[in-house]
Amino acid sequence: MLGGEWSQLRVEPLQRRLHRVAVREALHPLLRAFAFAQCVPFGRERGGVLFRAAAVEPPAASTLEAIEALLGLDATASTGTGPRLHYADPRRGQRRTMRLSGAGGSTRLEGFLLAGDIAAEAWIRPLLQEELPAEAYGRSLLAGGAKPPLPVAARGRQVCSCFDVGESEIAACLHGLAAPVEARLKRLQAELKCGTNCGSCLPELRRIVAAAPAAREPLAVGEPS
Ligand code: FES
């Protein structure tokens, strides 16, 4: 069983969509190599292609190499790609490949392939789709297993699309705030910028602020009392 994902960033949306379609078409013939297989797009801004397959016998290494090549995960991929991490144990039918970009705190996961034990998809996938910092993981990205080597701070559902602010950031900002709803909303706007552009997220922000757990201590919220 394997799961593979690809995503390419820093290209214009139309180019990205066209490239995604081209990758899906190129992957299509490989669907026949498995008893079950699907190849579907995922995401919007942080989009890519998800290739998921299952078979009774482990797939041939050449099949996995072909999938890696099409997903930009092979050793020879060059344009716009960063370090490649790879582990393979053919006797056990295990193969894991990660493609990273950036350096230091801006290191991000660009794509991955898991073959054999794919339990790690549960924590690797948020790293990719939510563009979470990946530097601290290093080669432990290849460790496998459902338990992440480090906690994955998923950003949760996106609430403000103008400033790409998610539920978890809002919850963290509201934590401990003792102030009226409108004042807490102003704190969110000041710190995260959410709700300060088109305003379409304001009803949702007000709902979240009103439903936030009761605050423990009064805090100054940056406006005259
Ligand atoms: S979606 Fe939040 S300001 Fe536009």
Question: What would you say this structure looks like, in words?
Answer:
The protein is an alpha+beta fold. It folds into two domains: 2-142, no CATH class; 158-218, Arc Repressor Mutant, subunit A (Orthogonal Bundle), CATH 1.10.10. Helix content is 28%, strand content 22%. A six-stranded antiparallel beta sheet has the order 2-3-1-6-5-4, with helices on both faces. A two-stranded antiparallel sheet has the order 7-8. A two-stranded parallel ribbon has the order 9-10. Helix 5 (181-192) packs across helix 6 (202-211). The chain is elongated and about 60 Å long. The structure holds FE2/S2 (inorganic) cluster.
Could you outline the blueprint of secondary structure elements for this entry?
Elements: E1 2-6, H1 13-27, E2 36-42, E3 48-54, H2 61-70, E4 84-89, E5 94-101, E6 108-115, H3 121-129, E7 158-160, E8 165-166, H4 167-174, E9 177-178, H5 181-192, H6 202-211, E10 217-218
Parallel strand pairs: 9-10
Antiparallel strand pairs: 1-3, 1-6, 2-3, 4-5, 5-6, 7-8
Bound molecules: FE2/S2 (inorganic) cluster.
FE2/S2 (inorganic) cluster binds at residues 160-162, 194-201.
Largest sheet: 6 strands, antiparallel
Q: What is the N-to-C order of secondary-structure elements (H for helix, E for strand)? A: EHEEHEEEHEEHEHHE
| C-alpha Rg (nearest Å) | 21 Å
Shape: elongated
Oligomer: single chain
Number of discrete helical segments: 6
Name the poorly predicted regions. 1-12, 216-225
Note the beta-strand portion: 15-25%
Structural class: alpha+beta
- Helix content bin: 25-40%
